[in-house]
Amino acid sequence: MEMDNNVKAENPMEQTNSAEKGLRQEAAPAEPSQMEILFVDDEKNVLQSLKRVFMDEDYDITIANSGEEALEIIKANDNFGLIVSDQRMPGLTGVDFFEKAKEILPDALRILLTGYADINAVADAINRGGAYRYITKPWKDDELLQVIHEAAKRYSLTQENKRLEALVAKQNEELKNWNTQLEVIVQEQTMEIQNKNKVLQEMNRNLKENFKNTIMAFSGLIALRDRKAKNHSKNVAEIAVKMAKALSLDGKQIESVAVAALLHDIGKIGMHDRFFTMDVEKMDAEGKREYVQHPVRGQAAIDSVVDLRSAGVLIRHHHEWHNGEGFPDGLSGDQIPVGAQIISMADYFDRMFGKSTTAESLDDSLDMVNQAIGKRFDSKMYPALQNAVKEIYSEALLGLDNNMIEKEIEIDDVRVGMILSRDIRSGTGLTLLTKNMKLNENNVEAMKRYSQLDPSNSGVFILVEK
Fold first, then answer.
1. CATH topology for 404-465?
2. Do domains 206-393 and 404-465 have the same CATH topology?
3. Other C-beta atoms within 10 Å of 415: how many?
4. pLDDT of residue 3
């Protein structure tokens, strides 16, 4: 211290819209309340110093001169999110107090404040009292503030997690009474809540993996509305990442390409239903005006997340053409970010390849890309695309000869390297993986995870030798 609903409507779609609005309002994050902190120390000057440190912070501070007094306070007030206690006190020690406080307020985080290098007390505080951290006396004000800020954030995330879990339970009960016209809304909301819940549960284990899982979940939203797209976003991402590596982009650029490829069509979610699954060539003027806005909408949708802004730029420009005839900004040549050029070419190839299942159609799709060189694409990108798609698709296409037969196996028997003979769908009909795909570790892990969340009614169909 430096010391010192019931919804009633004749029209089913009106009922659908009202229910959707209600779900989104409930799922919105709760308004944060002021964090309540309890400081416990038998020295009044220490407590005064603590109050001084936090006098300008947005916390509700309460103090107690002993562990016994603190227990009475928390029995009367169960809103404390953080308890900071000295170890060496008359009567109840900090460890003894934490052990009793944990029974009363199990969710509150506990921090031990000690002026002694007592490893046993620290171990007891963690093992018996469930302490979150310990701080030595005398403390540094900046370091103390940082620790308290981190603890407050952690506590808020835990409370939000509990709120979401309760919300899931409530909404799952409500979902049973909805009619079939609500199917898409149900899937969007339950998947969104489950993914948010998963992010919160995984946060302390691996933040980078959680970030990746969140992006994958968002990329799946487009498939909930456009079943024809199937695994399009994942295909584009896989191709684009291989192209980015072949073109010697650095690690950050490759990560931005991967994220942007997964989310490149997220702006389409805002399109009107009658245009959503329609080919651009068949749209009227109104549809085309709405379609050309989706890259801008996609960038705007993720711009509030600082770490996604570089990906947002690539999403905005993935429909620009090499000759300047693309949209939304009419960029040309080297004005178009390299990552956006990569995604544009990968996106075009995968849409041309579509549901094709032969090596000939793979070459035909590559030829269609090649024909657009100079107009739509830069010739420097093509060799990277050619190598990427042949590496990804060719091995899977080898299984389509007469020496292979289809076999159904259980999810627990799925292994890396197997080739799917049918699409993999969840129990509610969401397409997870497409046929002819050769499974890797991520695919297998995702299949097993979804089998717990949304189990399918059938096994997994693969190709095996006769």
1. Molybdopterin biosynthesis moea protein, domain 2 (3.90.105)
2. no
3. 9
4. 43
Q: Which CATH class is domain 35-139?
A: alpha beta
CA distances from 219 to 145, 224, 391 (A): 38, 10, 23
CA angle 361/363/367 to nearest 5° reads 110
Q: Which of 411, 344, 401 is nearest to 376 (CA)?
A: 344
pTM for the structure as a whole: 0.47
Give me 428's structure tokens.
């509610």
Q: What is the pLDDT of residue 12?
A: 45
**What's the CA gap between 90 and 282, in Å, rounded?**
82
Q: Nearest-CA neighbor of 27 among 157, 176, 194, 180?
A: 194
Measured distance CA(394)–CA(103) in Å, rounded:
60
| Residue 145 near residue 2, CB atoms below 8 Å | no
Fold of 206-393: Hypothetical protein af1432 (1.10.3210)
Residue 101: count of CB within 10 angstroms of its CB: 26
- Classify residue 34 by its DSSP letter: P
* Residue-wise pLDDT tens digits, 265-275: 888 887 776 66
* Statement: residue 336 has pLDDT above 70: yes
